[in-house]
Amino acid sequence: MRRPLAFAVLVFTAAVFLVLQLHPVEFPDYTSCSGQEAQIEGTVRDCTVKTARDGAGSLLLSVADVDFTAFPPDNGVREDKGARVLVQIPCGSAEEAKTDSGRYLPGCRVRVHGSVYAFEAASNYGGFDALLYYRTLGYAFRMVRCRAELLPDKDAGRTAGGQIVRALAKIRGALSDVLDRCLPAEDAAILRAMLLGEKGTLPAQTKDLYQSAGIIHILAISGLHVALLGMGLYRLLRRSGLPSAACAALPMAVMVLYGFMTGMGESAARAIVMFLLQMTGRLLHRTYDLLTALSVAALLLVVSNPLLLYSTGFLFSFGSVLGIGAVLPSLGTKSGRILAVPAVTLPVYYACCYSFPVWSVVLNLVVLPLMSVVMGSGLLVLALGLVSTGMGMLAGLPCRFLLLFYRAIATAAQHIPGHAGIAGKPGAWQIAVYAALLTAMVLLREKLPALVKDLWIMAAMLLLTVRTASGLNLHVLDVGQGDGIFLSCDVAGRQGVRILVDGGSTSKEELARYTLEPFLRYQDAADIDYAILTHEDEDHLSGLLELIRQQDETGIRIRCLVLPDIDPASQGENYRLLKKCALECGIAVRTIAEGGRITYHASGRPALSVICLHPEKGERDPEPNGYSTTLLVTYGQFRALLTGDLEGEGESRCLARMRQLPDLFPCLAAGKAEDITVLKVAHHGSSGATSDEFLAAVSPEVSLISCGRNNRYHHPHEETLLRLNKAGSRIYDTRSGALRVQSDGQHFRLYQVRAGK
């Protein structure tokens, strides 16, 4: 067998991943400590500057050797002694944070006082699993709004290792200052990320742009840095006439130190291990094999931290090299070879990001060849800028021009329809079949014609985009304190209709970016047929407004915005703002009132109907809750009632109208209780909504409540819960995660997102 080590590592890695799937790692729970004030002491391992979207600056300290005994013993903290704490210290501006960062050198002891917050697992499909991410990095919890005090420690930095780490931190700080002096702020931030591993000051807009274009990888310390720095130094030393051992040993040492200085991320660690093996092979006069070196790097990293198998950085880094080493030689035609890297990274994109930046295949053909010029210019800025700011500025001109070019082509790609390549999350069976097909193609590469291999891999890629969902799915999202409901109806994997009802929160910032967009990507919902706003309160509208404004960047488009058809005197500022933004973005705007309906029918399946029960056309109500759009969703025998924030007189008016609709509510018309499958409880479970009379009329089998954890309104209220229990309804709320109801028109099943599952 060729490359037995590579095969063995592949089997070992697959076995580790399977074990993690069957027996997930249990982490100590810090949720009971969230929001509490606490004081810790520990040792600084790293200090970085973080710039927020609004320009505010802060310091992020990685604090190790923390004494956890100050925490209550019943939360498992005492068993978490190896973990670190992420400490955030507000500094006002990025400049102030950069100035203060020089105080917190690695090895110094600090006392920190601030608020403890637990990292949270994903509570929506497609959501970011902060708990798993930060646990992979070794963090137990975070502390915010902190004050830090340096403590005397006579041993700090006295060891050889401590002195080296401190020296590297000082060098990184000095080089960062050079970039600030010689380059404009945004270009300096990009070069800090690209050359020094400092991503905290990278503007959010730039990061989003590079990510959507599929060129974010150029900001990571990776093989390109090793090729330019390590191999460049090696070749230079070889020309100097030094002994072979010295020519190899010095670049090896330099690259290891460079890796530690820049944070030793997954891609950097992979590239440096492979470089060390390459140099060792030259010393021993042995042939260097790319795939064997990649396997050794993977083995070392997985053994040291098995959770890296969940890291997208790890998967993208190793997948890219695997594509070059294994898939590229297997592809026959020159045009087909551009698919080598995407062939391996595509499953990672769809499994983790639920989309693939389509034009990244073309953009990388332009971007990557120019990266040596960008980095070379950046390195000259660092070298000459130490001597003269003017010389550094001159050396940075090529770099500035190319970064401007990158920005231009990435922006242009964003405006091409379908650039996001949203396809939702593939099933585990699809990824397994895809991996088998890709492996078979590599193994049979000498027996297959070139064109057949290219068609083979393209067919396998198409397999990943097939979705098999069928029937009706109703999601009540965890948006914190607010409302967000998503309806989809598919037939045998063919996309049907997509409806978003509300999307707002008063407890979650940037709801569209961090909740709605990832969820919609996960659901393969690049096109929303209807976005229905029940009323204009912030906790129903904020994320919807963001989604409309960001649709060109995200690739998620709303075809029609549906607003309640109310008297102009009742239309407030938010109502008019949302309507104006939708029209400016080319979105059709319609109104809906009692009797309006949206119907979708597919052959062989029940018809989906969304019927408006309230408000009456032209209704006037000084309180938005009073005119809240109320919808009846029917799909075969399944019936759901979505009530927005309906309460008080509005609820009474709606109930009176329902009794006058015998075709929809025959039992009510006959003076009996109607059987509603699912009730979305009004106004987050407020005591002023969902009255006894209303519950007696609709008799819901299941009641779903959208409310935030520890919300200041204390929703859901005890009186409402008692009324729901009295009505015999099963109660679920979003404080434990998003809720999903799936129905085939006859039966239904209810799921809740818990712990990111």
Protein architecture, described:
This protein is α/β, with parallel strands linked by helices and 757 residues long. It contains 25 helices and 22 strands. β1 and β2 form a beta hairpin. α4 (160-182) crosses α14 (389-395), α6 packs across α15 and α8 (244-261) packs antiparallel against α9. The two termini are 39 Å apart.
Strand content: 15-25%
Total count of strands: 22
Low-confidence stretches: none
Structural class estimated from helices and strands: alpha/beta
Give the helix proportion (percent range): 40-55%
Total of helices: 25
Question: How large is the radius of gyration?
Answer: 29 Å
Which sheet architecture does the biggest sheet show?
Answer: 8 strands, mixed
Shape, principal axes of CA atoms: globular
Average pLDDT level: 91
Strand order of the largest sheet: 13-12-10-8-7-6-21-22
How far apart are the first and last residues' alpha carbons, in Å?
39 Å
Task: Present the secondary structure layout.
Layout: H1 4-22, E1 37-51, E2 57-64, E3 84-90, H2 94-101, E4 109-117, H3 130-136, E5 139-151, H4 160-182, H5 185-196, H6 204-213, H7 223-240, H8 244-261, H9 266-283, H10 290-304, H11 312-327, H12 340-353, H13 360-385, H14 389-395, H15 397-414, H16 428-443, H17 450-464, E6 471-476, E7 482-491, E8 494-505, H18 511-522, E9 527-528, E10 530-532, H19 538-549, H20 551-554, E11 557-558, E12 560-564, H21 573-584, E13 588-592, E14 597-600, E15 608-614, E16 630-635, E17 638-642, H22 648-658, H23 666-669, E18 678-680, H24 692-698, E19 702-705, H25 718-726, E20 730-733, E21 739-743, E22 748-752
Parallel strand pairs: 3-5, 8-10, 9-11, 10-12, 12-13, 17-18, 18-19, 19-20
Antiparallel strand pairs: 1-2, 1-4, 2-3, 4-5, 6-7, 6-21, 7-8, 14-15, 15-16, 16-17, 21-22
Helix pairs in contact: 1-10, 4-5, 4-8, 4-13, 4-14, 6-15, 7-8, 8-9, 9-10, 10-11, 11-12, 13-14, 13-15, 16-17, 18-19, 19-21
